[in-house]
Structure formats: C-alpha cells, structure tokens
Amino acid sequence: MSDGRTRAEVRLVGHWRQLRAAVILAVFLLLLQWPMRHAVQAGDPTWPLRLDLRSSGPACEVPARLSLMVDLALIYTYLVAAWRVHGYLGLLRPVRRTARRLGLAGAVLVTVAGVVDVAENAVLWQRFGSPAGGGVCPSLQVGLLSPALWVLWTGGVVLAVAAVAVARPNRPGLPGRPGLGRPNWLSRLGRQATKRSDPGAQAREESAEAVRRAGAAAGPDLTRHDRTRQIICCSGGGIRSAAFSLGALQVLNERGEYQRSSTVIGVSGGGYIAAAFHILRRSLTGAPGEKLPYAMGTPELARLRRHTHYMLPSLAVGARAIMSLLYGVVVNLVLIGIALRGIAWVLGWAIAETSVVSGLGTALARTNFGHLPAWYWLAALGPLGIVIALFLAEVMVDRFRVPPNWLRREGRALARILTLPGLLSPALLLGIPLVLAWANNFGHESSGRSGLAEGLAGTASGVAGVAAVSANSAVDSQFGFATLAALGAAFIALARSAWKGMQSLGSDTTGGLRDKVLTWLRTKLVPWAGSALLLMAVLVVLLRWTAGYAASEEWRSRWWVAALCVGALVLIRVFTDATRTSLHPYYRERLAIAYLVGRATSDREAESAYSKPLPYSEYARATDGGPRLVIVASANAADTDFIPPDRGCVPFVFDPDRSGLAGDVTLPTEGLEPTASYELRADHRRRDVTVPGAVAISGAAFSPLTGRNNATTRPMRLLFAVVNARLGVWLPNPYWGTTSPAAALARRCELIAGRRAETGPRGGLVARFVDACAYVASIADKPGAHQLFREAFGRTSLYDRRLYVTDGGHYDNLGLVEALRRRPGRLIVIDASNDLEDTFAAVGSAIASARMDLGVDVRIDLRPLQRKGGERIGRGWARGTATYPEGGTAEILIVKAVLAGNLPWDLETYAAEHPDFPRRSTGDQLYGEFDFEAYRALGETLTREMLDRVQHTNKVPVGDAAAGGGRGPERATVPVVGAFAPPREPAPEDAAPEPTAPAEPAPASATPAAPATPASPATPAAPAGAGTGDPSS
C-alpha cells in the first residue's frame, strides 16, 4: 500500500485537490473581473487617466456586462468551493464538531450571498443597457444589495477559513494536516483547540484508527469463491476472439469442464461470448434432452450467425451509427466553440480597451506594447511569474533549512496548475496582437492568395475595419469558409489515415520499402499532424473572432450570442453527458442485441428487451450451480504514487459480489465495493453497471486513453476525443465509496417505502418524491465537459471522483492476472490475441504482470508453438504451472489461435484463401458466415485436441517433452485436475513423449476425478501443494 494510504485518505486527498482547484479558479475569475469593473467606476470621469485604461470615452455597457457574465461563472465557482470545504471537513477523522458547524455556516452564508449576487446582477444588467450620460458610467452599487452581498460573502469566507484552520489534523502528509494542507502553526492551533474542547478526542481517535486499520488490512476476499477451483479465461480480440472462444466453450461445455468451473473471466471480445453463454444458461429449464447452450443446431447459434455484422447490420443501423458519431462531434465542437467565443470576447475587449493594436483594417496596423497598463502586463506574465517565484522561494528557503512540507507540496502543486496558464497568457495577450497586425498587413500586401495563407491573412483584414459597419460586412463576406473547408477536408483525411494506421498496428510488415515508409507515416507522423491541424483550425477561429471583437463595438455588444452560449451549455448539461455523447450507448446496444439472448423453446431463441436493464449484481451470478461471470476492464490513471510509468491503468473488475479496482499491493486498500451499492452509485436506475454495459466497457478498445498502449495512441488522443472515437465510460471512483446525494436519497426512499404500510398513502407520496429527488441528483452527478477535457488531454487520476474505464486488454488481454489473483487450482486460457506470429506477446505480458503485481511465478514454455522455418506446428496448446507466493500451485492450460496439426479441410481451404487467418485485424468487426465459422471451428478443433491429449497422457511434463520439452523446474510434472471425456484413439502425433527425467509418482490426492457429465458437475481436486480455502460459492 503506497505511503500507507487507505481509501479514506485517497478520497481526502481527492477532495482537497478539488477544493484547491475551485479556490484557484475563483481567484482567477475575480482577477479577470478587476479591469472590467474598474472601467465603469461610478461617478469618476477621470478613471481612464487614473488607471491608465485608455478609451475614447466611458463605454460602460460592454465592460459592465462582460463583468456580469464573468460574475455568473464566479458565483457558481465560489458556491462549489464553499460546499467542498464543508464536504472536506466531513471527511476529516477526527474533527472538532465546532469546525464542521463553522464550515456548514460558512457554506450557507456563501449560498445566500450567491442568491443576492444573482439578484444584484439582474438589476445591473438592466441598468447598463443604455448609454452613459454626462460622461459618467452608472454606479455598480445596488442599494442595500451590494453591502449585504459583501457582508455575507466575506462572513462565509471567514467562517470557511476558520473551520479549516481549527480542524484537527490526523496524520502528517495529508491535506489539512501538517506538511501538506497548511502550515504547522495552523495544525498546532487545531490540536490545541480540540484538546481544550474535547479531552476524550485522542482516545476516540486512536480507537477509530485501530478499527479502520483492521478493516483495511482484511479487505475484500476475492479468492473465497475460486480458491483451488477451475477458472476459464476468454481473451480479447473483438469478434475474432468471440468466434474462437465460442468453439472452445462449446467443447468445454460438452465435456463438463464449463459446468464444473467456478468463474468464467471475459476480456473484450472474449467477454462477448462469455456473457452470451452466461445469460443463455439462465433461460434453460434443465428438462431432459435439452440441448447445451450454443450447441450445433440450437436457435441461439443460428441467430448469432445472422448477427456477425452486429456493428453495421443494415443501412438504417449504419445511419444511426453515423448520427451517434456526429452527435458527439457536434456537442464537442459546440463546447469548443463556446470556450473560444468567451476567450475571444474578453481578449477582443482587452485589445480594444488598451489599443495594443491600432490600424486594423488599414494598410498598416501596428502594435503598441510600450504604453500598456500595468494590469495587462500582470495578466500576461503573472502566472508564469508565480511559477518562477515559487521555485525561487523553495530554493532560497533550502539555503537555510529544509523547506516545510506545505511549501514543497502545495507550492509545487500550485506551480503545476499555473504552468499551462503561464504559457498561454503571454501567447494570448502578447502573441495574438502580433499575429493580428501581421495578418492585417500581409493581407493588404498580398491580394489574390488562396488556401490557408488567404485565410490567415483575412483573419484581421477581413474582419477588422475602421468602423463597426465595415467590420461587420467584412466578417459576413470573408469569414474564411475556404480556409475552414480546406482544414476540415485535411482533418478528415488525416483521421482516416490515422485510423488505418491503428488497424495496421500489430500486423506484419511484409511489403517493400514503400509500404514500410507509408506505414511509418501513418502510425508515427500522421497522428501528430492531425493534432497540429486541429490546433491550427482552433487558432484560425480564435484569431477571426478576436479580430472581430477588437474591431467592432457592435460585435462586443451582441448579448444574444452570450444568451445562446449559456442556453447551449444548459441544454448540454441537462440533456446529455460525457457518456451519452460517446459511442458507448450504441456499442452497448449492438452487443446486447447480438449476444445477450435467451431460449424460448428448443427451436426458437428469445431476444432480451434492450430496455430491460440487467444489473450486474443479479445477472452475473450463476443460477444453476455453474460458473459466475467476471468481466475485466482497465481504469486509466497516471499517478506515479500508485502506478508504474507508462502503464497508465489499473485493472477494473466487474464481479457479482464486489466491483472496482483490484491492482497490485501498492494500490490503496478497499478498492472494491459491493456491486449492488456500486450500481446505485453509478446510476439511480441501475442502467450503467449492467451485464451489457460491462461487456461494452471491457471492449472499449478505441478510446483517447488506452492504458499500456498510451505510448502508441498518445498522438491521436486529441484527435480521437474531437472526432468522438470514444468507447470508454466514466464510472464513480470506488475509493470515493458508494455515498452520493442520489444514493443517500435512494436509501432514504427505501426506508420510507418500507414503512409505507404504516404511514398509508401519505408515505407513498413522500417515497415517490424522495425517489424523484434521487433521480434528479443522479442525473446531475453524471460526467460532463470537465471529464471530456480530462479525457482529451489524459489528465486522469486515482484521486479523481470519477475514473475513465476502457478495454481490459489495455492491461491484460487474457484475463490471466485477474484469474491468478483469485488463487484457482486450475486455469484454462482461450487466447485469440492478435499478437505477432510466434511472439505470444499477450502471454508474455500477462506472465510479467502476474509476477510484478501478484508475486505469482508462472512457468510455461511456448516454444513448441513457434514455427520452425515457417513449417506448421504440431499443436495449438501449451501447459504450465503457477506458483503462489504463500505456497501452492495451479495448472495452466492455454489454447492459442494458430494453425496447428491436421485441421479439417474447410479450415485448410479458408486458410489458403485468407493469408491473415487466424490473425485478422481487430479493426475489422464485420464477419461473414464463413469467417465466423472458420474461427469457431478452429477454436473447437484445437480445444478438443487439447482435452484429448491431456486426458490421454494423464500426466504431461510441463513444456511437453515430446515437442521440445522444458528445462529446469519446468520439467516438473503437474497432476491433472478435473475430469475429461474418454480419450479418443491416439493419433500418430500423440505417441508417447521422448524419454525425460523420471516423473515423481503423483500423490493419491491427485488422482483424476471420474468423468463428469453436464448434469452432474463436480468440483476438481486441488493440485498438489495448492492452497486450501472455502470452495463454496
């Protein structure tokens, strides 16, 4: 556990970060208002001279109303900050009751101040709707509202600061404690105040800490259900893996191995078919003669063959897919446009107010940096200056003493936050005026230019003019549609090329120099060029809008544009969220329609209604004593506190009992939450954490964040976010618990509903009202534009309230690591990964991850599966062992999608016609009937041969001496666990293995169990030396 932190401490740090960000944003907005409010100083006609804010006259409307628009954002920000202080104090353990009361009182006062502030803004908006009279701007004071506002706001801030100051610290190195959140003198003040007010606080603190530590040390036990039993893993790989795993599961089901397994783990495409088997089994009746799930000739298998084009089965569905894609693109562009419009509005007003650029629209525009007011320079260079000052402060203090922790941590955190603004501020306030002047002069000197140069030149000269009328007409006639069209066409071409480059990753490069060069351009250069082109388009739009606002007073007075922007933000926040604008809902629906069906009769399948949610805690359980369903995904984060560099993710597990984060020992404890509670936390109607939802999340391969693959996809991150190539989902962070306003209201609703019989109809009305409030709170808690920004720029953290969860293959494409975490006695791994031929990279990555994260030593030799001089290998499976750090071993059987042995003739024919078989690109998800059957038949053939060989040899040296053998410890024998069908007549290649070191006799307890039928599953015996545990479910 990193730094000894638990979930409560991680949540505390996350709350502190959110509080700090809100306070910094509020301070920024206050500073942004300052020049605008001073431009309308009440009753002071000398303000332009006194403040060095040059203007032709007291143009009051624009700066006043701009400041009111900024004030709306400020009101929202300081309200959020005030209540975050209250929430932060509620997490401190222990904390003075007085501190919580002070925090609550401060939050209430600030809330009342916000209401008064809105009323004041409404009055001021009407007041500044008419021109100033007598050369003096109207007053910014509104009777008693203004002084009441400042009293309430100041009182609330003072109470909030006092609450944080007297809150007692618990441990050094955390927010609000010595060393991080505040100076030590504040911590000492808090300790002294607590001791004076509550002498027994120390004893209660120590007792609570002991209980919390004991619970953290125990943690959830994922091994109880699976220890010493058998687990089946279905690897990722889209429909390729689904088809191959289907064939393998058919054989395992036929032989009884599926029924006797305790868990089936699915990753990405393997999760498709794992969930399909699981859901279908729930509809079986157990009647005599009932066919096994997805057996040959069953209606569900015939239906699945009809849905191999599940992503785009028809023109109508394809149109819906395009609309889903464009819906997200439009929302993204609207959000970007609103942000650019706000920046251009404020920047254009500042340029016009200070006359930093003069002569726009004439043949010679000039910049005037020598006479800028002080506030302009502070805005341009202030953030960067603060970053430098913080660095120098730490260096100078270090000259005499070790810098205190609060200075090191909080100072560096503030420096990190201000680094990007420190670079953007000079670029916007100093760089854009230079570009506008250059583009204006360049446009007048060079007529008849076309393309991008014409667009850039027209940025200033096309929109700027001496008067508002000329600027308006210039904007309307020369907005630069040719430039934007050229940028858009190039952007689409680059996106298409980048997509092809992604599809070519992992494929052999067998072409000549030209193919290699094109592949390098597509995979290395094109993605960066796409991001650069996107930024160039943003810059062109920003320059044009800024020039328009700088040149035209009428532009700066277009308040209907502000109303449209605010209305659009409200509509986006109310009617959609970061998940609904992605492709996840479409992807989830298509998977549910294709794979999640039941069986109505022996000759007809029963399609599940997509509108019916399938909560994971209920539908992932086994109803017939068979295996439960576990889906593995990846939670993206980049915290070096917990995650190694370049990994970029931790495993995210969907289990019917507990779901959440299950990483290595360095992760904080308590990362798993009861699944039923987590479903309610994610959505009040339990629509997000469902079986189809988990399967779609685990298959979210195309996303801006891709875990261990971030090094490859990082150049395309911004590109994918803007064009809505987003399949991942933002889910609640389990470290933040399952508490939320919606969840609390839902629990309250259940309590009220439970007492409904006693309270009568009135209680029912109250319950419905509370349920409606819980639903509204759940909708308001959905991820928004802030999460979309983090997704686009990779700013995710385990401290955040929400985590971005994507494809399980971004961590381990086999599910092997999660299976070993559960300490089974035997694993059967179905591997249809598209790794390079003969490399078995997915297995190698899983072995290394198991050793690093779990301390499990996996020994398996895959060299017999490598081709010798291009010849076909003799088999498509391997066998090995896993040794647990606490003692005990497990047997591992891996069946790999390769061309091996004597295959059926239809597979030989298909392989001859399709050179990429069985490694078809994962980017191709549209399979025909022969494509799907080829991969299914290959999985069936190789798995059947594996089971026959293991049964026939009874004991096989690990590494298989007949195929080359292992060496050292890998030659130890592993007793067979489980029962198999009677062996077939051995083929010539099944002859006895070459002589090896004599195997030790198997212990009596390792005798193979009797063959079992599907109707009577049996629990396999534990391998020699395996750990013991409760095998019951």
Automatic annotation (TrEMBL):
Residues 172-205, 979-1033 are annotated as: Disordered. Gene3D superfamilies: Cytosolic phospholipase A2 catalytic domain. The keyword Transmembrane helix applies. Residues 1002-1033 have a biased composition (Low complexity). Keywords: Membrane, Transmembrane, Transmembrane helix. InterPro entries: Acyl_Trfase/lysoPLipase (IPR016035). Residues 195-205 have a biased composition (Basic and acidic residues). The keyword Magnesium does not apply. The chain crosses the membrane at residues 104-128, 148-167, 325-352, 374-397, 417-439, 451-472, 479-499, 525-547, 559-576. This is Patatin-like phospholipase.
